[in-house]
Protein 1
Amino acid sequence: MRVEILCTGDEILTGKTINTNYSHIARRLVDVGLGVHWGTTVGDDRESLLKAFHQAGERADAVIVNGGLGPTVDDLSQEVAAQACGVELVLSDHWMTRMEESYARRGRVMPPNNRKQAMLPANAELIDNPIGTACGFAVTIGKARFFFTPGVPREMRRMLDEQVLPRLLAMSGIAGVTRLKRFHTFGIGESRADQMLGDMDAFKADGGIKLGFQAHYPQLETKLALRADDETALTALLAPAEAEVRRRLGNFIVAEDDQTIEGVILGRLLASGSTLAIAETLTGGHLAARIAPLPGAERAFRRATIARDLAELGAAAVSPDQAAAVAKALRASSGASHALVVLLELDEGADRPDMGGTICIGLADAEGTVTRQARLVGGRDWVRIGATELALDCLRRHLLGLPFDERIDFERR
């Protein structure tokens, strides 16, 4: 089945907003075995949109339209879709009631211009949006079935998984069930992960499981995609492959599926009744910001100190001994069971191949202190991001009883 993704909006067309929605939709289509044949971006212009709808309707079997469902004058998707179908816009009483109830639950009165979001082509099939006011819908234009989704990422993603993909799979005639298993790793790159996993029988042509990687520094996502006749068959095929991936990637796996490394850390702290204090230099509070907002963090997160200068933390230099001393002092002053410290020294000067930073991590608990020193090469932001992730990984490993100083691919001696 030929699928096209059509994204709308001047901010997308001009590059003012990075189009992450397109990449997410495309990845999810590939995950379920559909793929993408065309990708189109159109600004907020009626004539251009109408032309794009007609062109897509002639060459594709299905089109996912993203954006243009809001309440403002530049949101044109419903209006142009009705024009392309040759029908009128009509008020959906059902969706109008839904929006009014949503505003009422929040103690607000719905603005008059939101009525526009309940105006749909007369022949439209409503596609539910359980977490927003933008009503999705489907119509047929030319030879293609069009599925309209909002530009708000969290709304689009929910509708895509729950509403659009099941319809597309039914249209395609692809039978069975699918699953996407994801492993999040820190410390290894794509080439190394491919070497570690590439010879597995499950990933060969007749193995039934598709192996894929997606790098988003500092983590790497390893994906196993599988289709089977039913859930029982799917689990039977996938379970041994999952176990083998865990065995081969080992300690580098920091989380799985929708988990995050910070979520794993907080879960471990809460399960053991432990608490945490953090001190960091030159990472701008990124370390604390990964943990503090999580649900339940208030029961474990005692304190965060964000310093621009080493002296503010009582450190004289970036060294393992200084990191250990600061961690020990922080644990005592905060009353936390665990204290994590990140000391970072960035190289001075313009970007160059050997530019980077020296990172010293100290961790103190009731058993004493442990330290980790590393040098990461790259620009300032690259080093800051890497230092944050390295510190989180060191804490994760310590809490799980794993080796604290296992070498990572991004590290330089």
Protein 2
Amino acid sequence: MLRPTRLALVVVAAVSLLAAGCGGKSGGSHHGGTDAAGFTPPKINALSSLGQGEGQVNLVSWAGYVENGSNKPELDWVHPFEKQTGCKVNNKVAGTSDEMVSLMKTGQFDAVSASGDASLRLIAAGTVAPVNTSLVPNYADIFPDLKNKPWNSVDGKMYGIPHGRGANMLMYRTDKVKPAPDSWSAVFDPNSPYKGHITAYDSPIYIADAALYLSTTQPALGIKDPYALDQKQFDAAVNLLKEQKKIVGEYWSDATKTQQSFQSGDTVLGTSWQVIANGLTAAKAPVATVLPKEGATGWSDTWMVSAKAQHPNCAYKWLDWVVSPKVNAQIAESWGEAPSNSKACALTADKKFCDTYHAADAPYWTKVHYWNTPITQCLDGRKDVKCVDYAKWTQAWTQIKG
């Protein structure tokens, strides 16, 4: 199922609150922990034991993550959950990560399906609590390379349950783009023969895509993490994107519209998702995707529990439910993402689904740099410089687009 509201996503980040909550340590490894996050979150205790459900749970989610059959009868994992647990599901769909953060700050919601550009803000502000993974039985079957990562853990504590993931691929029309590209240079070459027919993702987080490309093409810049850019590195990425604007035909945030643009041939090359490529292939449009040799950015969504959850027991039951093998398989297929539960792959309707989405292909995911929230404390561990925070990424993106 295409996701037209999925990623207007990383719009206007309220990073000032994150920065305010980011005192303390910086530096160290980029594999989770206080040092990797660059801050010490407020001390909040995780739920110690599960009790009886409170009768309801209030959620904030991306469209398509909490389906009750009202959109498509065959997509309903809400009613079975309600019947099994006695927890009535009340869901608020959010269109952007910024909206999710704002909604969770109200304290009116119990859990949220946060992407990596929001999760660090929620942790730093004390909006979400650590998760006691022992109370989520299906956590044991989550792919190991999704656990204890910089966007979902701090100081060895998990702050959520990984739900699904995807890569931001390079897609191209095979009948128009020749030879087949294997590098992001295809969308950054100022002399591109496809000028005016190139698309780029419309979000400040796209600056990380430029930084990732520069990390290999201009190694002297010393970029180790595309979300940890000092001023010189940041300026180089911004300048590259300003040059790219001259050859971009359109920026996109609506999956349906970008599919239509590729299908019509108005767009022949640019950033996309596997699910969009699948839709085009089904429509017999000549497209292909590639994970370029420089790697790619990507996203990993995490279900997180509010620090002020009024229905914590039902929230935990929901977390376990959505990553149970059958439900996780349903959501992954309907959404177009790799499931997080390793047992979900055996339960997808399309038996090749997990191969297509590289669900169990650990080496593939080492080339994907999952979204994270840039903060002044460099996420790559450097202590001698300050990095550019996401508020300035947002300002720069406005300038880039003009």
